[in-house]
Structures are given as structure tokens and as C-alpha cells.
Amino acid sequence: MSPEHKEAIRQGRIESSAVKAYLEALTAGTATHRSADPGAIQRRLRGVEDRLAKESNPLKRLELTQQQMNLTAALNASSAGSDEAKLREGFVRFAAAYGKRRGISYKAWRAVGVPASVLKQAGISRGD
Q1: Cα(first)–Cα(last) distance of the chain, in Å?
Q2: CA-based nearest residue to 94, from 24, 19, 6
Q3: CA 79 to CA 23: how far, in whole Å?
Q4: Average of pLDDT values for 49-67?
């Protein structure tokens, strides 16, 4: 096997890994939404916790408990934002070459949930 062939195989693996990781994140629902500011979420969470500690109405406590759970989940998701950005960055870098080599159309990317804005960043257009 020539050095060029080995390099082509290595490059293909890098591209495939980056595309696969991003698509898996999309499937898991972690790469589809912008992450909120963790500081803002933390402030809202403290406010809900303060209100929860003082609330005596059981229905209000129920609603506040759900808000607390939602904000905690949002805070955890926002801390994963840098990972999402790295996955998106890898996808943007390699998706066009991967898609061209594999014959993947714009419509196919969209059908699996890749946002149009990400495809645009990757240099994949509707004509592809």
C-alpha cells in the first residue's frame, strides 16, 4: 500500500468520525439547540429554589419543583455546549468532503436533521 493510499484511508477515517459524532449528537438531541447562558440559568434556578423554600401552596410547590428540574437539566445541557461546538466544528470542517466522496445530497443531510445553517457553514448547498 502506497503512502498516499494510507493517508487517504486515514483522512477518510477522520472525516467519518467527525461526521458520525455530530450526527449522533443530533440524534441524541444535544446539538440542535443553542445553549443558554449558564449564569442566567443559575440565577433563575436560585430564584426558583428561594420561592420553593417559602411556598406553602402544594400546587405552586409542584410547579416550582418542575421548574427547578427543568432549569437543572438546562444547566447541565449548557455545560455540554462546548462539546456541541466542537462536534459542530468537526462536522463543518469535514462534511463537504465526506458527502462529496459518498455522494450524499443536501436533502439527505437535511432529512437526518442537520440544520441548514450548519450545512451552509460546511459549504454544502442545495445544489449538492
Answers
A1: 32
A2: 19
A3: 19
A4: 93
